[in-house]
Write a structure and sequence with these properties.
- The chain is mainly alpha-helical.
- It has two domains: about 35 residues, no CATH class; about 230 residues, no CATH class.
- The chain contains eight helices and no strands.
């Protein structure tokens, strides 16, 4: 509650100003500014009401629509719906912790699914690599490979099992496994380090509103990882713009949405240093 005499911000329902001693009781000569009972909502609500949040909702909607033909994951659709519901609530003047919790839930579900997929790819990479290494040392492998070559008019390059040393084919199988597993491990590590930070921040927003805690967790880390994911999506969009323009546009929208989210976090949720 702000003092009408000196402008000092006092605690809610204070009877006298802590700074100047002026009575804080409302009468015909004073106006009391409405004060939220949730400090976290006071921080989050302006971010949700910001027009950039509306742009974020529009970008995610466009991305969902463009990706429908390619089997858009249900989680992205739900995430976008909850974004719109949260924005609609903010226009009415309140931050709906239930809808914010749903946003956090979809982020966490995506985090868990990506972890599971990454681990499965690691296991499959090891098994496939080992299997190819063992299979490459058999006459059946050479026969099947020759059939594949002849199918694409490369029959003149056919070979027999005796033409390839055992050590080479085993090494090729091992290298295939290593490359496959390394890619899956990188995806798993990035998901654990990055996506987990984003979920932690999303969770702290709705829990802060529910339990009157104004502090948000992993704000700077989440902002930086959003920028990272946005840049990665932008690179993917540029790489696929010639062959798959629709996919490129969808990835571009996701990249822009991630950057906008990082801007909103930096503007409203990041604690700014106080200079005296």
């Amino acid at each position: 509650m702000k003092c009408k005499n000196c402008g000092f911000e006092n605690e809610y329902n204070a009877e006298f100003c802590t700074n100047c001693g002026e009575s804080m009781k409302c009468n015909d000569m004073c106006e009391v500014e409405p004060v939220s009972l949730s400090p976290a909502a006071d921080k989050a609500l302006p971010a949700i009401k910001d027009k950039l949040f509306l742009v974020l909702c529009v970008l995610m909607t466009i991305s969902c629509v463009l990706s429908l033909s390619g089997g858009m994951p249900l989680l992205n659709i739900l995430f976008t719906i909850f974004l719109w519901l949260t924005y609609a609530d903010a226009q009415k003047g309140f931050a709906n912790e239930k809808h914010l919790q749903s946003i956090s839930g979809t982020v966490y579900a995506s985090y868990v699914i990506t972890n599971v997929v990454s681990i499965m790819l690691i296991v499959c990479g090891v098994l496939v690599g080992l299997g190819m290494g063992m299979l490459a040392g058999t006459e059946e492998f050479a026969t099947g490979f020759n059939e594949a070559l002849s199918l694409y008019d490369f029959g003149e390059y056919s070979f027999s099992y005796d033409d390839i040393p055992q050590a080479i084919v085993e090494f090729a199988g091992i290298m295939i496994a290593v490359v496959f597993v390394i890619g899956a491990v990188i995806m798993l590590v990035i998901n654990i380090l990055g996506y987990k930070k984003i979920h932690t921040l999303a969770k702290s927003v709705y829990t802060g509103i529910m339990f009157q805690n104004p502090e948000f967790k992993e704000v700077r880390s989440a902002k930086n990882w959003l920028i990272f994911f946005g840049v990665c999506a932008a690179i993917g969009a540029v790489a696929s713009i010639a062959s798959q323009p629709v996919v490129a546009l969808a990835s571009g929208c996701e990249a822009a949405a991630a950057i906008i989210a990082s801007v909103l976090i930096d503007k409203y949720l990041t604690e700014k240093p106080q200079y005296v």
